[in-house]
Write a structure and sequence with these properties.
The structure is a single chain. The protein has one domain. The chain has helices at about 5-10, 30-40, 45, 50-60, 70-75. It has 5 helices and no strands. With about 80 residues, the chain is mainly α.
Length: about 80
């Protein structure tokens, strides 16, 4: 399955081509997520106020899943 968000990360805006092996690309949202998980641990994803969890649920909803906040809380 191709996720439209992948284009923003893996396709060069200047050429419309994918990055090649060895080329550097930036993925700021992944950095933000990893920083939050490093600071808050599992609460970042499974906690009530974790931004990473909120973003995950938003992405999952856009993909048509039925996973909800309560499902994440019960997972831990």
């Amino acid at each position: 399955m191709f996720l439209p968000q992948s284009r923003e990360v893996f396709i060069k805006k200047s050429t419309g081509e994918p990055y090649r092996k060895g080329e550097r690309f930036l993925w700021p949202s992944l950095g933000e997520t990893l920083r939050e998980v490093a600071e808050k641990g599992a609460e970042a994803v499974y906690g009530e106020d974790g931004e990473a969890g909120k973003k995950l649920l938003k992405d999952l909803a856009e993909m048509g899943t039925i996973i909800a906040k309560e499902d994440l809380r019960r997972y831990t």
